[in-house]
Amino acid sequence: MGRRKGELTLLMETASKWPWKVSVALAPISYLVCHLIAAVFDHTAAPGNPADLGSVVIRQGIYSFAAFLQYVFPIIFLVAAAVSYVKRSRSVALFNDVRGDPTANIAALTWQDFEALVGEGFRHRRYEVTERGGAAPDGGVDLVLARGHERFLVQCKQWKAQQVGVSVVRELYGVMAAERVAGGYVVTSGTFTKDAKEFATGRNIELIDGKGLEALLRDGRSAAPALVPPMDSAIPPAKGAPTCPKCRTPMVARTAKKGSNAGSTFWGCAQYPKCRHTVAMSKATI
Fold first, then answer.
1. Topology of domain 106-222, per CATH?
2. What is the DSSP letter of 192?
3. Which of 272 and 22 is assigned the larger pLDDT?
4. Which of 11, 110, 119, 184 is the most exposed place for a label (fewest CB within 10 A)?
């Protein structure tokens, strides 16, 4: 029973990090699923043969377990939804307070409030934000961002007295490679070392220092995602140029001048920077 309580507690803690609407939706779904399972294994007849005793005991065990969980799961998800809603309300209030107060000392916040503040900043960039945190072996990732089919990882480092070094950026890059995400962010209220900046260059990692964080809080709603191949020069439209899959606008050939892809040519949306969608250009097309 102790182990079961531990697993249910872990489920509640995990669900409380999801958007509250997700947990609310899972409450009736979990009830229906468990109720149907219980109904399937209900009314088990007494065994007419001693050899059938084992299967009857198993069926009765499944029935009892499902009948128990059909009430426990909805309660867990509803409580988790309430916790998530309260946390989100607090983070919204914190975001508005800090953004509206130019004298606010971000570095004086608790690490929980700092992560909540960063999460709200990315929500205003129109990302879906999921908290990760905790003691899981996740390489220190605090937030997971989603936009469409792309995911981004975020590490929050509330360091004022010291710079964020290259080891933190390397750690994030390793997790990015393992989880095959589109990019990552390291956010701090302080600054980054030269080595950290050099390592992040060309690896689709954006480093947001104290000044960048202030910008994120100030005008995050209108900010566009920075993790896209830079389009520093354009080549006249080529014959057979594809149509942008995102906005259906004809694409143009561009050449990157910065990052690890410097000198490479690719298709970029003609609506840039309004639309930043890109498509790889095969050698046969160039």
1. Trna Endonuclease; Chain: A, domain 1 (3.40.1350)
2. B
3. 22
4. 110
Q: How far apart are CA 142 and CA 139, in angstroms?
A: 9
Q: Which backbone phi and psi does 259 adopt, to 5 degrees? A: 80, -170
242 contacts 280 by C-beta, under 8 angstroms: no
Domain ranges within the chain, ordered by starting residue: 2-100, 106-222, 228-286
Distance of CA 120 to the CA centre of its chain: 12
- The CA angle 84-85-88, to the nearest 5 degrees, is 85
**Distance (Å) of CA 151 to CA 135, 144, 155, 176:** 21, 7, 14, 10
Give the mean pLDDT of 66-81.
94
pLDDT higher than threshold 60 for residue 236: no
CB-based contact 217:241 (threshold 8 Å)? no
Residue 222: its pLDDT value, please?
A: 42
Cα angle: 120, vertex 184, 22; to 5 degrees: 45
Beta strands in 12-141 (DSSP E): 128-131
Task: Work out the percent of the chain whose per-residue pLDDT is above 90.
Answer: 37
Q: Comparing C-alpha atoms, which of 190, 194, 122, 114 is closest to residue 156?
A: 114
DSSP letter string over 230-272? ---EE-PPPTTPPBPTTT-PBEEEEE--SSTTTT-EEEEETTT
Q: Which of 102-106, 109-113, 186-190 has the highest mean pLDDT?
A: 186-190
Number of CB atoms found within 10 A of residue 30's CB: 20
Cβ count within 10 A of residue 168: 22
112-160 pLDDT, tens per residue?
A: 899 999 999 999 888 999 888 654 444 579 999 998 889 999 999 886 6
